[in-house]
Hints:
Layout: E1 13-22, E2 25-35, E3 40-44, H1 51-59, E4 69-72, E5 75-77, H2 83-87, E6 89-92, H3 104-109, H4 122-135, H5 151-165, E7 172-176, H6 184-199, E8 203-207, H7 211-217, E9 220-225, E10 228-234, H8 240-248, E11 266-275, E12 278-286, E13 290-294, H9 301-309, E14 316-321, E15 324-325, H10 331-336, E16 339-342, H11 346-350, H12 357-362, H13 377-390, H14 407-421, E17 425-429, H15 437-452, E18 456-460, H16 464-470, E19 473-478, E20 481-487, H17 493-501
Helix pairs in contact: 14-15, 16-17
Amino acid sequence: MSPVGTDMPQPVLCVSGLSKTFQGQQALRQVSLELQPGEIHCLLGQNGSGKSTLIKILAGYHAPDPGSHAIVFGSDVQLGSHSPAEAGLRFIHQDLGLIDSLSVADNMSLVGTYPGRFWLSDRAHVRSSQQILDSYDVDVDASAMVGSLGVAARTLVAIVRALHFGPSQDSILVLDEPTAALAEADKRHLFDLLRAVRARGQSVLYVTHLLQEVFELGDRVTILRNGAMVATRPVAGLDHESLIELILGRKLEALYPEHEESHGSPVLEVEDLSGGGIRNLSLSVRAGEIVGVVGLMGSGAEDVAHVLFGSRPRDTGTVKVDGIEIPANSPARAIKGGMAFSPGERKRLAIVGDWSTRENMTLPRLAGRGPLKWLSRRAEARDVMPFVTEYGVQPPDCELRLASLSGGNQQKVVIARWMRSGARVFLLEEPTAGVDVGARRAIYDAVIKAAADGSAVLLVTSDFDEAASMCDRVLVLRDGELGAVVPRAEASSDRLLGESIARPRTKESINV
Length: 512
C-alpha cells in the first residue's frame, strides 16, 4: 500500500502475500500487486507462471493459501469468494464465460438487465442488445446463438458485455488474453475502447503474451516467473529485449527464425472451394512452403482450415493432397489422406480436458502393439515423452489431466500431437494464441522443421506480424473471396491490414 502521509494516490487494488498450492505444487508464492487509479497495468509471464491462477483467485474460482490478503477500493475483500467481484472487479476470462445454447442477447443480459419493467419482450430484448453492440461498432447479430459464432465474434461479445455493464468510477476491468482470437482491426478497436476507459479514470489489469500490446497500451507491467513476482516496472523504461529477459530470466534469440523459401511441387491443391463464408477459393501450397491466410472478421479466413479439413461443410470444390482427392466433410478421411488440423478454439475443439497429456497427444494416430493391435499405456508414454520434452510441456508428466495444464501448455500438446502424426499438410489456425514468447519460438521452429521435411503448411492467423515474418506468401481474404496475394518480400503488418480493408480486386489480377 502507499505510505501514509504521502501524496501518492491510494491503489484501487492491493494484493499482498498471495500464495496458492495445488496438490503439493506451489502455483503462486507471496505475490504482491498494486493497481493505481486510471492505469492500464499489464501482467506478464511464461505459461505456467501463475497469471491465470492469480486471475481465478481474484474472480473467486480458486481459494488462496492462508495469509493471502487483498484490498479493493480501500476495503478488505475475501479472496476465493465473490467479494472482489462485488467490490467492483469485472472479468473477461480466456474461456469468455459465454453459454453456447443461449443467444447473444441472453448472454449479455446475464450480467446486465432485461428491458421492460413488467414483462419480457423478446423483440425488445434483442433490439436493446443490438443497440449496445452497434454502439461499440461490433457487427454481430444479437439474435444469433453464441454457439454458432466464430471465436473472434464470441470474443467481441464478451468484451462488449464487460465494457458496457462493468466499468464505472468504482470498478476495475480484468482482461485475460483478450486479443488472442482478434484480427488486427478488431485489436485496434479494443485498444481504443480501453484507452477511453483509462481516460475516464478507471483501471485495467491486462494479461497478455504479446509484448507489442504492452508498449501500445501499458502504463506499468508486473512480471511473474515460476509463481513469484519478479518485478513491477514503468513500461516507459523498458524495451523488447529487457522485457523478454525479465520474463524468461535469460536472453532470447530472434522471435521469428529464418527459413529458406521452398520450390517443391504442390502438395495441397484447392480448386473453387465454397463453404461457410468462403466463395470460389483456389490455392496451392508446395512442399516445404508456409502459406499464410489472413482477413478481418467475417472475411472467410476463419473458415478456410475448417472447410479444408471437413469440420465445416464444403459446398463445392475439390481438395487434393499429393494429387489424391480428399472427400468432403470427413475429418477422419482428411487425417487418413495426410492432413493435420490445429483449430484456434483450443478448449472447445482441440483438446479433451479430462484425458491425460498422453491420451490427447496420441489421439489422431494410435500405435497398437502386436498382431491384435493392443494399446499399451507404457508404450504410449514412451512414444509421447520425447515430444513432451521437445516442446517444453510443463509439468513434464504425460499422465496429468490436460485441463490441469495452463492454456499455453495445452497448446504445446496440440501442436506436438500433429507434428508426431507425420502429416503431409498442416492446417494451423492461431497456433501461438495464448503462448508465451519462449514457447512461440519453439512452435515456430517446429513449423519450419515440418516445412523443411517436405510438408505443406497453411497458417491461418490474426497476427499480421506473424504472417509477415513466417510465411512465404500471404493470402488475404475479403468478403469470402481471395482479395490479394502478398509475397514475403512485400509483407508487413501495415501492408496486410491495408489489403484486408481494401476494395476487391478482379480475379485476373491475383496470382496464387
